[in-house]
Structures are given as C-alpha cells and as structure tokens.
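Deliverable D4.2, example record:
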Amino acid sequence: MAGVDIVIEEKKDDGVDRQKVCPFLLRVFVSNTGHHSKLSDFNKGNTPQNELQIYTWKDATLHELTQLVKEVNPEARRKGTKFSFSFVYPDARAPVYRLREIGVTTTGVKGPDDLKTLNQARFSIGDFMDIAITAPDSWNSGRKGGYNNRTRPY
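Output generated by the structure prediction step:
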C-alpha cells in the first residue's frame, strides 16, 4: 500500500491577499462625545466635519481600525476608552440614511468584537463608518458600585 500524504490547509473565510487586492477608501466619522453622529448630518450629500479617510480591506478587524484611529487621536489611547462602531448607509426605499451598530472595542481590554471583520459585519463598499468614542471616566461613572473622582461612596 502506497503512503498517502494528507495536506490540511487553513482557509480564512473572508481573508484577503493584501499584496494582490487593492484597498478601498473607508470614510470614517469619529465623535469624542460618546454618541454617534446625527443621521441628519448625512442628508443632501453632506457629511459631518470629523472625517478620517482610511484605506483598508474587507478583512480589516475592528481592533485594527481602533489602532488606526488611536494613531491620530491621542486622547483615545487611554486604557478603558470605548469605541462603538456603526455603519451609516443610504436606505434603498427612502432618501435617508440608516445607522446599524456592529460592535464595540475597548482600549487595553480584549473583547468579543475585536476580531470581527468588515466583511463579517456585512460592510458594503460605499457605506460610511461612524465611531463614537467614550472616555473611560465617562462610562465607568455610570456603573453600579463604580465611582470616579467626583463621586465617592461613603
């Protein structure tokens, strides 16, 4: 009996050969208020002022995009800073835009959405990305039993 070689290849479902595939322009709107941009800011061909332009691929993860935003936004580098990601896209049935939340990452903390890719989140080229950044002292203060510098339990 002849020897049989078994070759097992690991296949990435949505992997892209970044050496062969040209990146696309992802228009990202970042808000440091902890809230997403108003959808009315996208009407009539307008967009919010706080735009980042990122060239990327559909296999980019939310963690990877978080790192890119932190490069240009120093205040977002603090441990515990929360990034809430959403897609903003035109409604096919009405002349308005819709927002769909896709995941959350936190600086310095591994989370379930870190490895989610644009492809897994059903990104379509032409969609915008909106990121609401929340500083750690803002979202920690509302937690039960938590406190910040202004309010201390007695």
